[in-house]
Amino acid sequence: MRETARSTQLPSRAFGNAAPNFALCWAGLGTFWLLFQLYVLGSWVLGPTFVATDPGTDPISDQKLLLFKVLQTVVPIAAAGMAWKLLFAPWLRTGRINTDGRILFAAAMVFFWDMSLNYASIALFYNAYFINFGSWANGAWPTWLGPSGHLLPEPFLFIMPAYLALVFSQALLICWLLRKVKTRHPQLGLWPTLLMIVAGLTVLDSIVEITVLRTGMYAYPGAIASLTLWYGKTYQFPLTEGFLFGGLGVGGCAAIWHFRDDQGQTFAEIGINKLRCSAITKSWLRTLSIYGFIHSVFFLLYFLPCQLVSLNADPFPAGYPSYMTNRMCVYGIAGDQCPGPGVMMPRKPFTTAH
After folding, report:
1. What percent of the chain has pLDDT over 70?
2. What number of CA atoms fall less than 13 Å from residue 111's CA on the CB side?
3. Which of 72, 57, 323 lies closest to 216, judged by CA?
4. How many CB atoms neighbour CB 143 within 10 A?
5. Residue 287 near residue 97, CB atoms below 8 Å
6. Distance between CA 158 and CA 155 in Å, rounded?
């Protein structure tokens, strides 16, 4: 199947006569984001915080441990299947990376923003019984504000594959539904289409996350009560997450996948054909332009608004076990409280002491 068969085939003029500078701007952003992320991840892996977070003394059931083992096996296999179908198989068949593969690569790297809810204050917990080596926060991410972010036990074998198998697949499903809708309503315009993407992914991501939260794999303790379902429970779900992450963040992936011209180009790479450079250079520019668009969307529409949510969060629910809190609540005068109204937020010197 041709890559454009999965997208909205618009004539080239639908994007206008875009100058190469348009694509070069996206490629420049893509270069910045990729280098920054590689620097942070490299500093984490090679630094003193690449250490597993101790789950503490609270016990966990054998059933949950078995579930986590299954997930850390099945999800990577599913992600590998997606990578083979969309990236490696077409690459081996044609000798080049197609647009689907470029979008897949950028979407897989979105895992970098996964823990950004905790940048300014703690709002996300992970279960430390997942295989983990802490996270790329203090000591790796320049300007990181929270004093205990490196203790978040990012699931090492689960999180990146999950962004393909459980997150990016949502974008593909919405794009599939859009094609069905446009078969019956071909006159559907740009703004109704974008509205369907945002609304559809807000609902879909919310359903997925509400289901997963009940397993105790992760939690959103830092949330605004009036915008949260089941507020006060350890499985509470902030509606802001469904909208910011699903509707806007993943929606950006769906939009760039869906809107292409009749040459299979996304709007981020329009104009590259006009450049006088080698085919290899153009291929890199296409990859970086798509990367720049997707990661700029997550920075502007997910990372930044999330800081407002975490800094205005209401008191945490009671009842989180030690393998969820992971000694991350170091706020207040005594340094033993979770963030919330009236709780002082320290800016302690970074330390790797556990």
Report:
1. 92
2. 21
3. 323
4. 5
5. yes
6. 5
